[in-house]
Fold these 2 entries.
Entry 1:
Amino acid sequence: MAIRTVLKMGNPLLWEKAAEVETFDTPELHELVSDMLDTMRAESGAGLAAPQIGVGLRGVVFEVCANPRYPDVEPVPLTVLVNPVLVPLEGEMEEGWEGCLSIPGMRGLVPRHSRLRYSGLDACGNRIEREVQGFHARVVQHECDHLDGMLYPMRIPDLRKFGFASEIPQKRELPEE
Ligand code: NI
């Protein structure tokens, strides 16, 4: 078990485009995923991308358990997604509040595609393909943005909807990703 330091916004590594993973089912990849899961859980996050722990590879993890603290947030199954490809489906953009482990204590209102299909591989190289909506779709888009050096404040159209969770009524109880 290894909890790694989560890089914070301002660290140049968070702006870099991550590289595709080329070899699967290796001890190195399993160790990376295990560290990402340990770190995400230690920080009570809903998701984590490899660049957030300083590793420039295209891998993300996420999981949201049903939690009475977050009544508005639907559960999302534990997923390890490597080399993800996202395809937005017909439908409107949807605004929702987000937080990020790299920007602790802050929340922002971010438009995201409400439905999408995503595919990728798990750490063993097994193919994953899903069609999702709602919070699941939001988490995937947030995490995959990290792989392209994108943090959620860059997508906030109205910066009045960005601030400290403690100052935004009802929004302090939302997991960071
Ligand atoms: Ni994040």
Entry 2:
Amino acid sequence: IQHIIAVSSGKGGVGKSTIAVNLACSLAKLGLKTGLLDADIYGPNTPSMMGVAEQNPKVTEGSGSDQRLIPINKYGISLVSMGFLIEEGQPVIWRGPMLNSIIRQFLYQVEWNNLDFLVIDLPPGTGDAQISLSQSVPISGAIVVTTPQQVSLQDARRGLAMFKQLGVPLLGIVENMSVFIPPDMPGKKYEIFGKGGGQTLAKENDLPLLAQIPIEIPLVDESNKGVPISISQPNKKSSIEFGNLAQLIKNQF
Ligand code: ADP
């Protein structure tokens, strides 16, 4: 794996998984060999978002530590998620050491095969998973996702501070749910979660604001149907933003 990109957020529900999935799809559309590791152990949603929730990844022959998990392939992406290994609706209640070991297995016992980029969807917050990951593998860079809202910014600040402490390079901020453009009134914009949050956070930390993703209804619909918007509707504003984000990430390396 050439480059590992961690997608994180201070709190849940800000669209971190949506960003990780669409970033991975957009990197693959640039012709890059891309993997997606859903390390959001407590809420692994990427199999549903990618339309592969029913599938079970196979393992290679052998036994014990010789065995490797074979990722599921969809939209040109190799996907591994905790969601494949637990029954739907089951909670995952693990303590730090177990979490550490599953994250290491996801990194070292999967047939990732010469990827250009591995995008990692981290759990929200500043916990064991982030620490395990940064100690298990060199992360090329982390992206912090926030909405423009103040409470989201406060949590994002904690996330940024953690990556700095762990010595993980920061690539920049992605502001999600920046504005809502009603489909029947494309001339109008509603700043539902406030304004300027991503820019503030970027300035405070001397980081670039990599993308501002609007609220778009198809982002919800398509995600429910298991087709990321950047695949199903590449001309939507959010898909274009995801494409630009992928290009920016590619250019960094
Ligand atoms: P997180 O990973 O931060 O918990 P998700 O990516 O699961 O967040 O997103 C939470 C919900 O918000 C999902 O239903 C998703 O479809 C929706 N969502 C995320 N970003 C957008 C957006 N820009 N426009 C509309 N809906 C969005």
